Amino acid sequence: MSSTDIAEAPGGWVVAYMGLGANLGDGASAMRTALAALDARPDTSVVNVSSLYRSAPVDAAGPDYVNAVAELRTSLEPQALLHVLLEAELRAGRERPYRNAPRTLDLDVLLYGESRVQTPTLSIPHPRMMERAFVLWPLAEICPAAVSAQQLAAVAEQVIERGGTLMNPD
Fold first, then answer.
1. d(CA 78, CA 97)
2. In the chain, what is the straight-line distance between the N-terminal and C-terminal CA atoms, in Å?
3. For the chain, what percentages of helix, strand and coil (3-state, to nearest 5) are there?
4. Which of 51, 53, 129, 156 has a Cα-to-Cα distance from 107 of 20 to 30 A?
């Protein structure tokens, strides 16, 4: 399967994209642990992971964030996938004392095949992803078809720094 295909995967599986971020503790380690746990599940596999990107918090205070985007192949429905991601955040010590609080791990469903979802707890595509360089640049890295040059230009004023990798090359 190509990383440029954002539709359904063969066999009833769906290609989904997940945003990862953290600005407390060892964020890269928390992200690696979450990715390994997802990849170990029989209903989800990690297909590709972007480089790490560092950026300042948006609409919040605190240390810089480290962010990435992962391509998943999953048979989970969108709400079930969100539930799995929220459980991973809790295992990483995520607390929600107030809106946009610093976090040990933040996992978001960005895209789920071609689906559009709007529930009280989940919006797909992610409602603010097109406003955030820390989502668009890593997404463009692993799925260029998902992001246009115009969308990248719209976030060009946001400072973002590409860094290392989350996954070991095989």
1. 26
2. 17
3. 30, 30, 40
4. 156
Phi/psi at 148 (5° precision): -95, 160
Task: Tell whether the torsion through CA atoms of 9, 142, 89 and 118 is positive or negative.
Answer: negative
Residues designated catalytic: 94, 103, 106, 108
Tell me which residue of 60, 44, 54, 62 sits closest to 20, measured CA to CA.
54
pLDDT in tens, the chain (170 residues): 333 344 555 567 999 999 999 999 999 999 999 999 999 999 999 999 999 999 988 777 788 999 999 999 999 999 999 999 999 999 988 887 677 778 899 999 999 999 999 999 999 999 999 999 999 999 999 999 999 999 999 999 999 999 877 765 44
Single pTM value for the model? 0.88
